[in-house]
Specification:
Helix content is 32%, strand content 19%. It is of the alpha/beta class. It has a single domain (2-11, 23-175), classed as Phosphoglycerate mutase-like (Rossmann fold). Strands 3-2-4-1-5-6 form a six-stranded mixed beta sheet, sandwiched between helices. Helix 2 (57-69) links the parallel strand 2 (50-54) and strand 3. The longest helix has 17 residues, at 28-44.
Protein backbone atom coordinates (compact mmCIF):
# COMPACT_ATOMS: atom_id res chain seq x y z
CA UNK A 1 0.00 0.00 0.00
CA UNK A 2 1.26 3.45 -0.96
CA UNK A 3 -0.24 6.85 -0.15
CA UNK A 4 0.12 10.23 -1.81
CA UNK A 5 -0.94 13.40 -0.02
CA UNK A 6 -1.50 16.10 -2.64
CA UNK A 7 -1.37 19.47 -0.89
CA UNK A 8 -1.99 22.87 -2.41
CA UNK A 9 0.17 25.56 -0.81
CA UNK A 10 -1.28 27.81 1.90
CA UNK A 11 -2.96 31.11 1.03
CA UNK A 12 -0.45 33.39 -0.63
CA UNK A 13 0.13 37.11 -0.32
CA UNK A 14 -0.85 39.17 -3.34
CA UNK A 15 -0.38 42.54 -1.59
CA UNK A 16 3.16 43.08 -2.89
CA UNK A 17 3.11 43.72 -6.63
CA UNK A 18 6.82 44.16 -7.38
CA UNK A 19 7.90 40.54 -6.76
CA UNK A 20 7.78 37.57 -9.06
CA UNK A 21 5.14 34.87 -8.63
CA UNK A 22 7.71 32.37 -7.38
CA UNK A 23 8.68 34.76 -4.55
CA UNK A 24 5.18 35.26 -3.11
CA UNK A 25 4.95 34.61 0.64
CA UNK A 26 2.10 33.02 2.61
CA UNK A 27 -0.32 35.15 4.60
CA UNK A 28 -1.10 35.11 8.32
CA UNK A 29 -4.31 33.25 7.46
CA UNK A 30 -2.18 30.74 5.56
CA UNK A 31 -0.05 30.20 8.68
CA UNK A 32 -3.17 29.63 10.79
CA UNK A 33 -4.51 27.19 8.21
CA UNK A 34 -1.26 25.20 8.28
CA UNK A 35 -1.62 24.88 12.05
CA UNK A 36 -5.18 23.57 11.66
CA UNK A 37 -4.36 21.05 8.93
CA UNK A 38 -1.13 20.07 10.69
CA UNK A 39 -3.05 19.40 13.90
CA UNK A 40 -5.45 17.15 12.00
CA UNK A 41 -2.57 15.20 10.46
CA UNK A 42 -0.76 14.93 13.79
CA UNK A 43 -3.91 13.57 15.48
CA UNK A 44 -4.15 10.92 12.78
CA UNK A 45 -0.46 10.07 13.20
CA UNK A 46 0.33 10.95 9.60
CA UNK A 47 3.93 11.61 8.69
CA UNK A 48 5.29 11.04 5.18
CA UNK A 49 8.45 9.18 4.20
CA UNK A 50 9.38 12.02 1.83
CA UNK A 51 8.19 15.54 1.05
CA UNK A 52 8.32 16.83 -2.52
CA UNK A 53 7.64 20.55 -2.80
CA UNK A 54 7.50 23.14 -5.51
CA UNK A 55 10.41 25.56 -5.29
CA UNK A 56 8.01 28.51 -5.06
CA UNK A 57 8.39 30.27 -1.70
CA UNK A 58 4.75 29.76 -0.66
CA UNK A 59 4.96 26.01 -1.34
CA UNK A 60 8.33 25.65 0.40
CA UNK A 61 7.01 27.56 3.44
CA UNK A 62 3.92 25.33 3.51
CA UNK A 63 6.12 22.21 3.38
CA UNK A 64 8.48 23.41 6.09
CA UNK A 65 5.87 24.64 8.55
CA UNK A 66 3.61 21.62 8.03
CA UNK A 67 6.56 19.24 8.56
CA UNK A 68 7.44 21.07 11.79
CA UNK A 69 3.83 20.93 12.99
CA UNK A 70 3.66 17.14 12.56
CA UNK A 71 7.26 16.72 13.76
CA UNK A 72 8.26 15.01 10.53
CA UNK A 73 11.88 14.12 9.92
CA UNK A 74 11.18 13.17 6.30
CA UNK A 75 13.66 14.44 3.72
CA UNK A 76 12.36 17.46 1.79
CA UNK A 77 13.09 18.10 -1.85
CA UNK A 78 12.30 21.48 -3.41
CA UNK A 79 11.82 20.93 -7.12
CA UNK A 80 11.65 23.44 -9.93
CA UNK A 81 9.77 20.71 -11.81
CA UNK A 82 6.79 21.04 -9.44
CA UNK A 83 6.36 24.72 -10.27
CA UNK A 84 4.18 25.30 -13.34
CA UNK A 85 4.53 21.70 -14.54
CA UNK A 86 1.72 19.62 -15.96
CA UNK A 87 -0.15 16.96 -14.01
CA UNK A 88 1.62 14.37 -16.19
CA UNK A 89 5.04 15.78 -15.22
CA UNK A 90 4.15 15.61 -11.53
CA UNK A 91 2.95 12.02 -11.96
CA UNK A 92 6.29 11.15 -13.57
CA UNK A 93 8.16 12.65 -10.60
CA UNK A 94 6.08 10.51 -8.25
CA UNK A 95 6.62 7.38 -10.35
CA UNK A 96 10.43 7.56 -10.06
CA UNK A 97 10.45 7.60 -6.25
CA UNK A 98 12.11 4.68 -4.51
CA UNK A 99 10.07 1.59 -3.66
CA UNK A 100 10.94 2.04 0.04
CA UNK A 101 8.90 5.27 0.11
CA UNK A 102 5.39 4.29 1.18
CA UNK A 103 3.90 7.75 1.67
CA UNK A 104 4.71 11.19 0.33
CA UNK A 105 3.56 14.76 0.54
CA UNK A 106 3.48 16.53 -2.82
CA UNK A 107 3.10 20.28 -2.21
CA UNK A 108 2.34 22.40 -5.23
CA UNK A 109 -0.14 24.46 -7.19
CA UNK A 110 -3.40 24.48 -9.06
CA UNK A 111 -4.69 23.58 -11.55
CA UNK A 112 -2.07 20.82 -11.77
CA UNK A 113 -2.75 19.18 -8.38
CA UNK A 114 -6.52 19.15 -8.88
CA UNK A 115 -6.06 17.64 -12.33
CA UNK A 116 -3.64 15.03 -10.96
CA UNK A 117 -6.02 14.06 -8.13
CA UNK A 118 -8.79 13.54 -10.69
CA UNK A 119 -6.54 11.45 -12.94
CA UNK A 120 -5.32 9.25 -10.09
CA UNK A 121 -8.83 8.41 -8.84
CA UNK A 122 -12.32 7.77 -10.16
CA UNK A 123 -13.59 10.69 -8.07
CA UNK A 124 -13.97 14.29 -9.20
CA UNK A 125 -12.66 17.22 -7.21
CA UNK A 126 -13.73 20.57 -8.62
CA UNK A 127 -10.84 22.53 -7.14
CA UNK A 128 -8.25 21.91 -4.46
CA UNK A 129 -8.51 25.09 -2.34
CA UNK A 130 -5.62 26.79 -0.55
CA UNK A 131 -4.11 24.20 1.81
CA UNK A 132 -6.53 21.61 0.50
CA UNK A 133 -5.18 18.11 1.03
CA UNK A 134 -6.32 14.95 -0.70
CA UNK A 135 -4.95 11.62 0.54
CA UNK A 136 -4.99 8.88 -2.08
CA UNK A 137 -4.24 5.22 -1.29
CA UNK A 138 -2.90 2.84 -3.93
CA UNK A 139 -2.75 -0.94 -3.83
CA UNK A 140 0.72 -1.07 -5.41
CA UNK A 141 4.22 -2.20 -4.44
CA UNK A 142 6.23 0.25 -6.57
CA UNK A 143 5.48 3.81 -7.65
CA UNK A 144 5.99 3.04 -11.33
CA UNK A 145 2.76 0.99 -11.15
CA UNK A 146 0.85 4.31 -11.07
CA UNK A 147 0.98 4.27 -14.85
CA UNK A 148 -2.07 1.99 -15.01
CA UNK A 149 -3.60 2.15 -11.53
CA UNK A 150 -6.27 4.25 -9.92
CA UNK A 151 -6.29 4.96 -6.20
CA UNK A 152 -8.98 5.49 -3.59
CA UNK A 153 -9.41 8.78 -1.77
CA UNK A 154 -8.85 8.20 1.94
CA UNK A 155 -9.81 11.76 2.87
CA UNK A 156 -10.07 15.25 1.42
CA UNK A 157 -9.75 18.17 3.85
CA UNK A 158 -9.32 21.91 3.66
CA UNK A 159 -9.27 24.72 6.24
CA UNK A 160 -12.82 26.04 5.71
CA UNK A 161 -14.20 22.69 6.88
CA UNK A 162 -13.01 23.66 10.34
CA UNK A 163 -14.47 27.18 10.28
CA UNK A 164 -17.70 26.39 12.16
CA UNK A 165 -16.74 23.17 13.87
CA UNK A 166 -13.33 22.27 15.12
CA UNK A 167 -12.93 19.05 17.10
CA UNK A 168 -11.65 19.61 20.64
CA UNK A 169 -8.50 17.57 19.92
CA UNK A 170 -7.51 20.00 17.16
CA UNK A 171 -8.51 23.10 19.16
CA UNK A 172 -6.34 21.89 22.05
CA UNK A 173 -3.26 21.40 19.86
CA UNK A 174 -3.65 24.89 18.36
CA UNK A 175 -3.37 26.46 21.80
CA UNK A 176 -0.04 24.79 22.57
Amino acid sequence: MKTIYLIKHAKSDWSVSDISDVERDITKKGLNDINTIGSYLALRGISPDIILSSCALRAAQTSDILADKIESKAPKHYLNELYLSSADDIKEIIMVQEETVNSMFVVGHNPQLTELANRLTDEHITKLPSLGLVAIDFDIEDWDELENKKGQIDFFIYPKQFKYYMPNQIRTTLKS
